């Protein structure tokens, strides 16, 4: 069990379609923000970012460019993100990796984000689990490759979101069991400590994501050893998200 401040990140993905709806979700979510032991991070689409920057909720984005400046049509740089009110960035989400984002690209984006003092939420997660434990090697490689060239002085700006891909967006809300999540948290933490050879690696928050809802949040936070959640669908429903926040801040 962890006694650190909890972090619950809302990944709105490509939702909602209008600023009016976005503002409503944002304002309704804000009502749950009185709990001092939980940091709430809202990651809306870029287009709404500026609208919410004066709020007490922390803001993040869902991705950023591999490039830093110049002629890159449609791209958003780490500097733009930092200068427009965001403090966090999700990097290497499985939905972006599915579009061809490699560990190499993830690594470069992390460098860009850290150089602008953004906090990086690095997503890792296996597609399937096999009985021989190959998935552990997969996670290890994902971590090793994504963290290449990341200096340990940036550890305080680092979070890991463990998201097994089969649980992300699962229509039955089939989250991984708290027991399996706990094992993975230990595995990831061990790897971080070995990789950075630094005691501060023990303090890197490890979040869980994939089918988190009000019903399973308390059990996962209590028995999964995580420091919080990365929430997709339920972050668009302030009532459900509020339930997740409540469950997280109780522990
Ligand atoms: P979900 O998505 O909560 O809808 O499963 C999680 C995520 O994509 O981070």
Q: What layout of secondary structure does this protein have?
A:
Elements lengths: L5 E6 L7 H12 L7 E6 L14 E4 L16 H6 L4 E4 L2 H4 L5 H13 L3 E6 L9 H14 L10 E5 L15 H19 L9 E4 L4 H10 L4 E4 L6 H13 L1
Parallel strand pairs: 1-2, 1-8, 2-3, 3-4, 4-5, 5-6, 6-7, 7-8
Helix pairs in contact: 1-8, 4-5, 5-6, 6-7, 7-8
The protein binds 2-phosphoglycolic acid.
Shape: globular
Structural class: alpha/beta
Ligands = 2-phosphoglycolic acid
User: Main beta sheet: strand number and arrangement?
Assistant: 8 strands, parallel, barrel
User: How many E-type strands?
Assistant: 8
What is the terminal-to-terminal distance?
A: 9 Å
Sheet with most strands: strand arrangement:
1-2-3-4-5-6-7-8
Provide the gyration radius in Å. Answer: 17 Å
Beta-strand content estimate: 15-25%
Order of helices and strands: EHEEHEHHEHEHEHEH
Low-pLDDT windows of residues: none
Helix fraction by DSSP (H/I, runs of at least 4) = 25-40%
Rounded mean pLDDT is: 95
User: Tally the helices: what do you get?
Assistant: 8
Would you write up a description of this structure?
This protein has 251 residues and is α/β, with parallel strands linked by helices. It contains eight helices and eight strands, in the order E-H-E-E-H-E-H-H-E-H-E-H-E-H-E-H. It has an eight-stranded parallel beta barrel with strand order 1-2-3-4-5-6-7-8, surrounded by five helices. Helix 6 links the parallel strand 6 and strand 7. The chain starts with 5 loop residues before the first strand and ends with a helix. 38% of the residues are buried. The model has no long low-confidence stretch (mean pLDDT 95). 2-phosphoglycolic acid binds at residues 11, 163, 168-169, 209-212, 230-234. 2-phosphoglycolic acid binds next to strand 8.
